[in-house]
Amino acid sequence: MTEAEAQVRAGKDKLVETETAAGDLDRDIRRIERDVEGVRARTEKDRSLLAGSGIGAKQATDLQHELDTLARRQGVLEDEQLEIMEQREALGMDLDHARRVLAEAEQRQTEVTERRDTAIADIDAAEAGRRRDRDAIVAGLPEDLVVAYHQRVDQGKVGAGLLRERRCGACRLELDRTFLGRLRTAEKDDVVHCEECGAILVRTSESGL
Known about the structure:
This protein has 209 residues and is mainly alpha-helical. Helix content is 73%, strand content 5%. It has 4 helices and 3 strands.
């Protein structure tokens, strides 16, 4: 996983965590609102009964006691509601921050992905160009040279090495003087192999012959 992907993953995890906490607080707020509404409805009902006619002294006392209890209960619920709403407000800022962080991480990931895709496209284009150049060169080479080269490559060996300053470019070894002497008399079109590793030797003016 790349650093950009890790940042996006962490941003998503943090956002989910914050959204979950916010959802829990929202449910608590709705629950308390329902409880407060229930207390208020019961209070209104008791007040109506207390204000009506035909109730005895004991019932009136019981109603007043219940009204006092309901008032205390409403006060507790409203205090709890206020505390949770303050927590929710603070969490809302955390939620906005988590969303910004994730958006920035996703933007960075997009930029990294675009740069990667561009680099891959450039590499593919360069490789395609090298293949075209190689195919053009191979088309002009003697068939026996091409066959010999592919036989070595198919065996997992280096196919050819540049002979430079009497040293084979495939095995990096300096070649024997006697062998170099034979190379000097060989025709330029002859396919010659390194006496050390067997790679096809590519002779140039820098070969030291």
